[in-house]
Amino acid sequence: EPIQERFFRPHFLQAPGDLTVQEGKLCRMDCKASVSGLPTPDLSWQLNGRPIRPDSSHKMLVRENGVHSLIIEPVTSRDAGIYTCIASNRAGENTFSLELTVAAKEVQKAPVFIEKLQNTGVTEGFPVRLECRISGEPSPQIFWKKENESLTYNTDRVSMHQDNYGYICLLIQGATKEDAGWYTVSAKNEAGIVSCTARLDVYTQWQQPTQTTKPKKVRPSASRYAALCDQGLDIRAAFQPEANPVHLTMQPGLVESDDL
């Protein structure tokens, strides 16, 4: 007896759920329909009840394993809505639906310095901070270099910090002569890169003069680091607040050193 051909309504073995895609990105919807007889089903797509026609940004693909794909690239706000996939043959049809949400395109701004690094000086043995402030969207990655050497990790003495407000800091505990040099901070994101360089000077700490039969005292000079007194370095005792070194006068009882 001739074999009677049997037809069965298609059903979906695989279907995607709701999707959220950023504007400008690629969106792919994959599904797989199965039937137990012939013919294999035809698939079509609708957006908010309207048929989707293939064009430069909407493509429909079928792979050998029976997976059907709707690919949208780039996604725009007009692509948001309810998508319906319809599988049909002469025995009937089946459908599934999903909602595509299109998120606003991420704002991208190249990094810029709100506050740049400043040339800094520190007395040997004291802590020092190299600071700046940077803005950018998305939040940029920060890189530090000393001369041509990258600073890639924190130590107990040298550490790198940043907060959520764009403040960047390189902290050195107990500066040494080896810390002196040019420091560069760079900020990089998808929109660009920016760098800033400043110099750190490390001064030798003044030592208290040894007592001799003829005490020596040094009058104030244009350098605040040359101010000495019997108790050692005392800037406030040698200078009036905010005084201009050019207008400084010799304090009573101070004499010029014979060695100067």
Helix-strand layout with pairing:
Layout: E1 11-14, E2 19-22, E3 27-34, E4 42-47, E5 50-51, E6 58-62, E7 67-72, E8 81-89, E9 92-103, E10 109-115, E11 120-123, E12 128-137, E13 141-146, E14 149-151, E15 158-162, E16 167-172, E17 181-189, E18 192-203, E19 228-229, E20 232-233, H1 235-238
Parallel strand pairs: 2-9, 11-18
Antiparallel strand pairs: 1-3, 3-7, 4-5, 4-8, 6-7, 8-9, 10-12, 12-16, 13-14, 13-17, 15-16, 17-18, 19-20
Shape: rod-shaped
- The largest beta-sheet arranges its strands as 2-9-8-4-5
Helix content: under 10%
H-E string = EEEEEEEEEEEEEEEEEEEEH
Any overview of this molecule?
- The relative contact order is 0.13.
- The chain has one helix at residues 235-238, and strands at 11-14, 19-22, 27-34, 42-47, 50-51, 58-62, 67-72, 81-89, 92-103, 109-115, 120-123, 128-137, 141-146, 149-151, 158-162, 167-172, 181-189, 192-203, 228-229, 232-233.
- The protein has 2 domains: 12-103, Immunoglobulin-like, CATH 2.60.40.10; 109-203, Immunoglobulins (Immunoglobulin-like, Sandwich).
- It is rod-shaped.
- The chain is built from 1 helix and 20 strands.
- Strand 4 and strand 5 (50-51) form a beta hairpin.
- It has 260 residues and is mainly β.
- A 5-stranded mixed sheet has the order 2-9-8-4-5, with no helix packed on it.
- It is found in: Cytoplasm, Myofibril, Sarcomere, Z line.
- InterPro entries: Ig-like_dom (IPR007110), Ig-like_dom_sf (IPR036179), Ig-like_fold (IPR013783), Ig_I-set (IPR013098), Ig_sub (IPR003599), Ig_sub2 (IPR003598).
- Residues 10-101, 111-201 form the Ig-like domain.
- This is PALLD protein.
